[in-house]
Amino acid sequence: MKQTVLFLKSSVANDNVTVPYGTTWLSGLVFEALGLNAFLDTMKRDQGIKVSVVVKALVSFAIMGRGLSVLNIEYILSDPAVRMMYGLPDDIDRNDLYRCIKRMGLERYCVIRHINSVLKRRFGVRFVRTYIDWSTSYIDGKSTAYIRFGHSKDHRPDRPQVSYGIALDADAAVPIGLTVERGNINDNIHFRRTFGVIERFLEPKASVTFDAGANGKVNTDMLNRRGYRFLTRVEINESDEKKLSSRDIEWTVLKDGTLAHRFEGNLGYTRTIFFSEKRKGEVIQSYWNKAERDYEKMLEMKKAIDLGHEPRKKYRSSNCFIATQFQLGGEYIGLSREAAIEAAVKNRITGREGYFVLLSNWEEDEQETLDRYRHRNLSEDMYKDLKTGIRIRPIRSKNWIAVRGRIMIAYLALLVISFTRFMVPELRGRTAETIVDGLRLFSVTRISREDGKFDLHYSNYSPMIKQIDEVFSSFPMYGKHV
User: Fold this and answer.
1) Is the pLDDT confidence value at 389 over 60?
2) Spacing of C-alpha 86 from chain mean position
3) The 270-275 sheet, strands edge to edge
4) What is the pTM of this model?
């Protein structure tokens, strides 16, 4: 079969402009379906640039560029043709973008309430099973009253950070709540603030699932007193240790071989001890992985000290009254790399690897409890979408309101992707990263004509784009996007 190779012999200068249009197009569809355009435009007087237009542009750029940088957006918008493609006026400047980001930081709860009302009223999202989780994002800048050093879930203890919590509807797999707090806040306290954002939308006896960091008597008693069901992981305590040490403990074998033992705890809530051989292997493997990483870091630090250099800041204390000193643990001196790593792993093993305890306040069998908690991985996937698909970190801002607005824009970007998966069943198994890659290929070209006007031509109308267009255009309450 004859093959044809295309190549450019010569080029003729023209005024045609091609821009990626997929993220702007999809943001417009989602904003229209959720009634966000009209709602956002009520946030300011009907003068100047509409809030909805700027927010859609910011969300679109956050998705397309995998991260929101006002300077990068300003550079892209320097071309009048590109501004027109995104519906932005010629006189827009950097200050307009910053003002919009701050407005979203101030009005974030109003926007979330509107979105949740539409999700419940128009799309039948039930708000009966909710997952809540928290993470952090580090800041490129100095610490302030709110941007603080704390336990870094980004593995950047050398940088100040902010903490944010996201609530997720388990059945629809869409975000339904956001809070942004200081970087050193405890998850136990942060839980009550995140829960307060979504409580008004929850159905009676709705279930709330969260991890061990937010577990505490105040939180569990509050949920129980208000009639909500909860499921959380707790640390193994003395009572659990006694159960495990007992020879006559009765185990229930679940379908994947996991062992379960259920009993009533001291606080009147149901405790279930689980043991998984698979989990045990994963935990011990994580010990090996960490020991190998730490060994390489030790060599790096040793080399720096031998050359008279100070170790990296992340390994030193910033307190001017504390002198940080490093020395190799005595039990590892003289050991080879393999022997040292093996010894470090043995020192970490407690004999309780593979065991975990779940706490709840309602009756269901052990298999249902385990399945419900494992399904909480949806919230982990949501944070993965934020950090790899949309790239929320690092945040480059010192103004606290702007930081909250910046995270709110990322939240809306996450909502656009999640709501699209909710509407289009064929996309529910795809990550945000793969969806974004497909959207970036969908382009629009402005072709100039001799009469001074121009035509628009759309390219790369892929099967994914067709699926999205068919679903949104057939939705009865959908208005045509301009």
Assistant:
1) no
2) 26
3) 174-182, 161-169, 129-138, 207-210, 229-234, 355-360, 270-275, 259-264, 252-253
4) 0.85
